[in-house]
Design a protein that fits this description.
- There is one protein chain.
- This protein is 69% helix and 0% strand.
- By secondary structure, the protein is mostly helical.
- Among the domains are: 9-83, no CATH class; 84-99 and 150-215 and 253-280, no CATH class.
- Helix 2 packs antiparallel against helix 3 (70-82) and helix 16 packs antiparallel against helix 17.
- The N and C termini lie far apart (177 Å).
- The model is unreliable at 1-5, 107-154, 163-170, 225-247 and 585-598 (pLDDT under 50).
- This is J domain-containing protein.
- Residues 220-230 have a biased composition (Polar residues).
């Protein structure tokens, strides 16, 4: 049971081997740094990634000899970042991702599957300690919490983790590179909040280390000439030594980190403004802010996972403003970027059901059901644990699965009843029922120009695709297929609405002709009635005029005094021959006729009146 003492020759051999191994490691580390510097220099000129790949190979050889060497780990992370293998960086440093720590600490920590998903790649850290990884004094808080748990029970794994962490713990100046490198990787993966926290923490730690180191510097070291002459030279001679000694990254990296942090904050502010406008009931304002995020023209990089979430948010704003076609188009783009994005599938299924396309909605719901089944079977959501799923949690999947099954049954019953083909094309095109032809033509023209299949894949060129399974060609093909499906639906809706509008216009013209004929007939009848009335009025006026003239003539005849009765002998004359009647002469007035009648015939006034 005793320890066998080694001879002096064996110890000397071991020391020689260690010295030789250290020399080999230092040589590999130097070559890897030179290769990374060359890769950084070629990055601006559009060179290949051969230098970064060579540096990664050298670092891998170093890690085989010394797995816990901090400089080798830093170079490996930076080489992966230069090769744009952001997922590998996230898997390597996943213990430092804040959202992964919170989700792992809060979601189903009692089950073995969740604890396995929360464990790191090396299996050293537990889920409960990830919430305080970003604080400088995290070992104090974790140790206090561990002491309270130690009083309850003895946890051997926790003791082992603490011993290993204490042995391998390094200073903040040596570990601040983790936050900077992981912050850049999180930005490219779409974890914007995590990127902000990590980049700010890295800058804070670097600034604090630089402040502590600059206490022993002379005043001449802070002059612009010395700082511009000495710092880049030191960074060129030994970049990692400079960063470890002063705590500050090189000037170029510090500038790029500052610019990246400002860009991330701008994107987060615009998205927050869009969400606030949508919550306040201002969908047009929300669409405007989402357009600023998605259609940025300043050359900023936009990760595809962050763009996917923004597309789903803009689809919700389009739906609230009564534009379902634009909302469906945004959901199609989001699903082209990430076919397993649960919020996009939910939103498109709801939109298709709202316009009456129940078979298409059932297709999306079946896809969503498959994702739910996989999540229940695997105990985690699709994709890596650090990838965001739009607020979807694993603990919500069981209830959502039950609701989804009931909804699918109801929709299938509606399809069996014959209600599956009644698509509301008016709602799809965004025009009211009974609209004019000009409104239909205008709405169809705008939607056709925006949602043309040839232009549907252009949005992916402004995004950064970092998923190995989704290249640009696959995204373009799926976006073009979904856009073609929506375009055909719009064309069918336009034909349906235009036929209805033409029928209404023909019916309106027929009604107008019938009304015109009825109006002409009524006008004719009214004209005849008016003519008869006018003729009767004229006859009545003529008779009244004649009667008035007769009365005037009667009033114009003078009354002669009644003659006295005198007996005058009357001589009877011989009868004269009467001439034949002459044609009627115009009527004379009573004054002209009275002397003639009085002299010849009249003997009494009664006879005169009878003659008149």
């Amino acid at each position: 049971g005793g320890v066998v003492p080694r001879s002096g020759a064996a110890e000397e051999e071991e020391q020689v081997w260690r010295r030789g191994n250290r020399k080999v490691i230092n040589g590999y580390i130097g070559e890897a740094r030179a290769a990374l510097a060359a890769a950084a220099a070629r990055d601006g000129d559009g060179g290949d990634d051969s230098a970064a790949a060579a540096a990664l190979g050298l670092v891998g050889a170093v890690l085989e000899m010394s797995p816990r060497m901090e400089a080798a780990l830093e170079l490996r992370a930076r080489a992966l970042l230069a090769l744009r293998r952001y997922r590998d960086v996230a898997e390597m440093l996943r213990d430092y991702i804040p959202s992964c720590a919170k989700s792992c600490a809060g979601d189903d920590t009692a089950t073995s599957s969740s604890s396995t998903s929360c464990s790191s790649g090396s299996g050293d850290l537990a889920c409960a300690s990830r919430a305080g990884l970003l604080s400088p004094g995290r070992e104090l808080s974790v140790s206090g919490a561990g002491a309270s748990r130690f009083l309850c029970c003895l946890d051997v794994s926790e003791i082992k983790r603490r011993v290993v962490a204490g042995l391998s713990r390094s200073s903040e100046a040596e570990t601040q590179w983790r936050y900077l490198v992981l912050g850049q990787a999180c930005f490219h993966l779409g974890l914007m909040e995590d990127a902000v926290v990590l980049l700010q923490t890295g800058r804070r730690l670097a600034t604090a280390a630089f402040r502590r180191e600059s206490v022993c510097w002379s005043e001449d070291s802070f002059s612009p000439s010395n700082s511009t002459a000495n710092v880049p030279a030191a960074s060129r001679r030994a970049p990692s030594k400079y960063s470890q000694a002063s705590g500050m990254p090189p000037a170029s990296e510090a500038d790029s980190v500052s610019q990246l942090l400002a860009h991330v904050k701008l994107l987060l502010r615009r998205r927050a403004a869009a969400v606030a406008a949508l919550d306040a009931g201002l969908p047009a304002e929300a669409v405007r802010h989402f357009n600023k995020v998605l259609d940025a023209r300043r050359g900023g990089v936009l990760p595809h996972s962050f763009a996917t979430a923004c597309l789903v948010g803009r689809a919700a704003a389009f739906r609230a403003s009564g534009r379902p076609a634009d909302a469906i188009a945004d959901c199609n783009r989001a699903l082209a970027l990430d076919p397993a994005f649960i919020p996009a599938l939910r939103a498109r299924a709801d939109l298709l059901e709202s316009v009456g396309a129940i078979p298409d909605s059932l297709r999306d719901l079946d896809h969503l059901k498959l994702l739910y089944d996989a999540a229940l079977r695997d105990g985690k959501l699709p994709g890596p644990s650090w990838r965001p799923q739009g607020g979807v949690r694993q603990r919500e999947i069981a209830g959502a699965h039950r609701e989804l099954v009931a909804r699918v049954q109801q929709l299938r019953a509606r399809v069996a009843a014959g209600d599956g083909c009644n698509v509301d094309y008016y709602a799809l095109l965004g025009v009211p029922r009974g609209c004019a032809r000009s409104e239909v033509v205008r709405a169809h023209l705008l939607l056709t120009l925006k949602l043309k299949p040839d232009r549907s894949a252009s949005f992916a060129e402004r995004l950064e695709l970092v998923d190995e399974h989704r290249d640009l060609d696959a995204v373009r093909d799926q976006a073009r297929m979904s856009a073609l499906f929506l375009y055909r639906m719009l064309q069918k809706g336009y034909s349906h609405i235009m036929s209805a509008v033409l029928d209404e216009e023909a019916a309106a013209r027929q009604r107008a002709r019938e009304d015109a004929a009825a109006a002409a007939l009524a006008a004719t009848v009214a004209a005849a009635a008016a003519s008869a009335t006018k003729q009767a009025e004229e006859e009545a006026a003529a008779s009244a005029t004649m009667q008035q003239q007769e009365e005037e003539e009667l009033a114009a005849v003078p009354e002669s005094p009644k003659p006295e009765r005198v007996n005058i002998p009357v001589q009877v004359a011989e009868p004269e021959t009467i001439a034949p009647p002459s044609p009627p002469t115009p009527r004379l007035s009573a004054a002209a006729m009275s002397p003639m009648f009085q002299g010849a015939f009249c003997r009494d006034m009664a006879v005169v009146g009878t003659l008149l």
